Amino acid sequence: MYKVNSNSQDSASALGISTSESTEQRPDAPTHDYPIHLINAIQPHGVLLALDRTDFSIVQVSANTQVYLGLTPEQLLGESLSLLCAIAPIRDLLRDTSPNPAPTSTRVTPIRLTINTASGPADFDSFIHCTHDTIILEMEPVAAADVVPFDPAGQSKVTNGGFYAVYALVNLAIERMQQAETREALLTLIVDEIRQLTGFDRVMVYRFDAQGAGAVVAEYKHPDLEASYLGLNFPAREIPARCRELYVRGKLRVTPHIQAHSVPLLPPPDPSPPVSAPQTEPPLATQMWPATQPLDLSLSVLRSPDACCAEYYSNMGVSAALTASLIKDKQLWGLVACHHRAPKKLSYDIRAACELLVQVASSELSNKVKQEDLEQRDRLRQIQSDLISAMAEADNFAEALIEPEERLLSLVNASGAAICLGKDLTLVGETPNQEQVRSLMDWASEQTTDSLFHTACLSDAYPDAAAIKSVASGLLLLQISKVQHYQILWFRPEVLQTINWGGPPNDGIEEDEQGRVRLGPRQSFSLWQETVQATALPWRSDEIKGAIALKSAIVGIVLKKADELAKLNRALHTSNRELASFAYAAAHDLKEPLRGIYNYANILVEDYATVLDDAGLSYLSDIQVFSQRMETLINALLRIAGLRQTELHLKTVSLDELLENAVDVLRASRPDASFELRRPKSLPQVECDPVLVNEVFRNLISNALKYNDNSEKWVEVGYESTGAPQALPKEPSEDTGNVENLENLVFYIRDNGIGIRQEHLTMVFQLFKRLHPQDRYDGGAGVGLAVVNQIIDRHGGRLWVESVFGEGSTFYFTLG
To answer: Cis omega before residue 268 (within 30°)?
Structure first.
């Protein structure tokens, strides 16, 4: 990947930092990964008490208890919390509503407590959670108005922190967010609503990418602020993995005065490694016992910012901050980051309202992202469906791949493609020339062992790609068959990208005299630009899945007698549509008169047997047999029609349990049928309709036993994790555990029965198609395999058979 420095608006760009290390962190680069949750200090606007979970005795306190409670740490340590307040409400709060209540350790619970201070009772907004064997109680004095009325300069709309004012604003904000039509509109709205609620100078939405790097995607800033961070990018080390993990656990983080002296917890841990929080309070001359280990402040509301973080904010000119987590699918998607130039304390009402708004925004964001992804998937699936259908129906599948060429390119949003089928190479769209493509394929065959290879910067792996970067900076290579040399390559052109960084990406990385690398706080946040060359737009997961699906189609449909399967599919689709109409007509118009014919025949046999001669009685017997036979056929039609219209009831179930149930039913219904059930390995858990899949097992195993003349019958049921059915080994490998991803799972049922002739393989799934006379192999209506095929089709899967006449058959199917 080529990266070139561009113009910068900050003198830090002239520090000589190598642009080759700008976007991607060096392997030896330091990480901000020390245990900040063990900082052993809190912010000074509240007080912390650590309590023994068994008796609520005070085992650790913040050093500022004299300020808020009028009692020194020495006076509190070892005492019961009852010295300060009633314990019963807190004990009840810490218990779940389950039959066997247990103290909670996964959430912070707010409560307003009246505390007995040296100056008399006082109200505190309090926050309680548990960690290990300790209860952590944090308290902030309930203050009078600490926000001012709204004005155009960006102050808060809320006066006096009043509940009704906060409720009205939050309620209106939620309505607006629910009405936002796009992701961008939602992000802009949440920025504006949080700004109005809190009055912060700057409110931003900071989004993380897959590698943890971030970008500011929405921003409000006070008119007096000159610098804008909108559109700026920041390396992953700015907010390291440990910090991101804490943001997932603690949804809201408030720092009213970043430069304020932190308050240590007493007694201090001993022994303890140095912590990065500045120990500005003078040590107290006490004889208190040392704590055995630092207190876990992961969920602490008052936890002090570490020194690096405080300096980082100071370099930005920030004195107060609020950060709330945007969570999508239980993962940290981004942050709502609020900055203020002066210290700023928010009441708990306002903070709780902010947390609620961000939670609603997270839910709406998740819905909008899923909707956008769903629309993109639907578009690609439609293209994929059209392409696969065209290949299945075409006499020459290569022509269906190439014409019209837009379809193959749109499948993965490529600008060009190369289709290699043996010695034939066809180029579509904007591509390298044939010689360059063949050289690329030769390199790929030696360098890549996987059937799929993709990159957005081909020149990183294949230096010769520098000559073709204008058309092939991005490559998606699909290996269909190495034996037959079937490949498809998709290309994307170079897209020159200008990345706007918030200061040089390596700003803050320092080296001491001993050559040790240290990560310090960022000094510059001004625009620093970088141009990325020889790089294409990255391949999306949906596009990659589309390529994989195309391979499955080519292998499963085209390479295995595509002409025959295409004709069968058309016949099945036509017959299924006609069958549905006929079946319903049969249900209403045929079953009733048929039942009458059968009943009248019975009456004649029973009441007029003495009147009729032998020939007449024989005719009546034939009428009874034919009536029963026709009713069987009509019921089969109704079953097929019902499968097409019945809604699937999908559940995650064990296929082993479904198989055992099906075998039990078969053994019970056919006690004379003796056979060996072989299972090379356990079947996985999958999402399917258990009733219908149970019927698949019953029908296929029943057929395997019915069409078997051997004295020792066996049926083998297994699966393989592969998208290529012909690659299935005759003896599957040992158990590799349950597999839940159905995309590449092929299940099979193999027997040692009579087998099927090759010319009949395409006929066995047709409705009412029997390959033997009615009086052989227990008759049958020729419906079972058609029902199985319909069930598999309803699950979005495929059903096919391979057989050797006289030796046995193997039925393969997929479920998605």
So the answer is: no
Write out the two tokens for 8. 């910068």
Nearest to 246 by CA among 184, 335, 328: 335
**CB within 8 Å of 86: residues ≥ 6 apart:** none
Question: And the tokens for 549?
Answer: 């699906």
pLDDT confidence of residue 678: 92
Least confident among 488-492, 529-533, 685-689: 529-533
The count of other CB atoms within 10 Å of the CB of residue 520 is 15
Which one-letter DSSP state was computed for residue 419? E
What is the DSSP annotation of 663-688?
HHHHHHH-TT--EEEE-SSPPPEEEE
Residues 6+ apart with CB under 8 A from 733: 680, 681
Answer whether 22's CB lies under 8 Å from 506's CB.
Answer: yes
Find residue 751's DSSP bridge partners. Answer: 715
CA dihedral of 736, 741, 743, 745, whole degrees rounded to 10: 30
Length of the chain in residues, anyone?
A: 816
C-beta separation of 265 from 40 below 8 A = yes
Amino acid residing at 797: G
Q: What integer is the mean pLDDT of 104-132?
A: 85
Q: Hey, which residues does 111 pair with through a beta bridge?
A: 126
Distance CA 526, CA 228 (A): 9
Nearest to 167 by CA among 158, 178, 154, 179: 158
**Residues β-bridged to residue 425:** 420
Q: What sections of 19-96 are H helices per DSSP?
A: 65-69, 73-76, 88-93
Q: Which residues of 448-473 are buried (b: 16+ CB within 10 A; e: fewer)?
A: eeebebbbbbbbeebeebeebbebbb
How many whole angstroms from its chain centre is CA 142?
A: 42
Contacts (Cβ under 8 Å, ≥6 apart) of 446? none
The pLDDT of residue 137 is 94
Encoded tokens for 689? 């309709």
Amino acid of residue 144:
A
Alpha carbons 580 and 582: distance in angstroms, whole number: 6
Which range, 95-99, 498-502, 652-656, is most confident?
A: 652-656
Question: What does R_g of the chain's alpha carbons equal in angstroms?
Answer: 36
Q: Where are the beta strands (DSSP E) in 623-712?
A: 651-654, 675-678, 685-688
Q: Would the pLDDT of 749 be above 90?
A: yes
3-state class of 327 per DSSP?
A: strand
Query: Is pLDDT at 618 greater than 70 in this prediction?
Result: yes
d(C-alpha 642, C-alpha 695), whole Å: 14
